Amino acid sequence: MKFFIPLACLLAVLMPAYAIYGGEESVPNSRPYQAALISPWGRGSVACGGALVHKRWVVSAAKCALGNVIIIGLGYHHTSYHGLPGQQYIWSDWYPHPKYNSYTNDNDIALIRLGEDADLSSPKIATISISNSRPSPGTNLLVSGWGALDYNVGAPGTLREADVKVQFMDDCRKAHGSSPLTDNMFCAYNPDKNICYSDTGDPIVSGYGDGTHNPGTTLEGVASWGWSCSIQNHPGVYTIIANYCDWLSQTSGGDVQC
């Protein structure tokens, strides 16, 4: 069922994660597929991000399931002004990938079943299609989320976004050195923009509109990990969602399709 709770009753960030460094504030309602995963451990902080891929299902990162997320927020822009009816949902089931490896971050993906259907009649809420192929190097993508603007800098409270470019895996492996990268990951980066602390699970998408929602927007992955926000030449790392089409379909009983 929907869950309405004042922000003052919510508590801080779940765990170190990643959000947007060097981006800009999103135009309100321009990313209606964006989900906010909120825990009881702070004052309304968004612990992780996610994407609404079906009226009953949200995709996020497996590591987010390690915390105590109680609310899935849809149609949010500013985290101080949400909680309207139809925007807060209790989750009923959480399915982290069974082969998620917390050391290597491999298979860092999860499905969350909402307790009831999302209100798709709202102009603030929409589902997003899922890609069935790996994004090619050089492709421009958009990542969006809430969270820190830089290391030791607090979250602004509004949804932000950054345009980033998919990198060649050889370059990404060189940049990350001993940190393992698997065939289930891709890197994306802009010299002045990257993921930072506070929103693992954020959606990274193709086919996006400039300041407006494009119904053809496609989910390419979810934010998984990275180094410190503003370190040059260290791309953010994302889970390739196309590698999990069969798992998404099987886990959701056929609801979620690529």
TrEMBL record:
The keyword Magnesium does not apply. It comes from the Eukaryota. InterPro entries: Peptidase_S1_PA, Peptidase_S1_PA_chymotrypsin, Peptidase_S1A, Serine_Proteases_S1, Trypsin_dom. GO terms for cellular component: extracellular space. The keyword DNA-binding does not apply. Keywords: Disulfide bond, Hydrolase, Protease, Serine protease, Signal. Coiled coil: none annotated. GO terms for molecular function: serine-type endopeptidase activity. PANTHER family: TRYPSIN-3-LIKE, TRYPSIN-RELATED. This is Trypsin alpha-3-like. It comes from Acanthaster planci. The gene is LOC110979097.
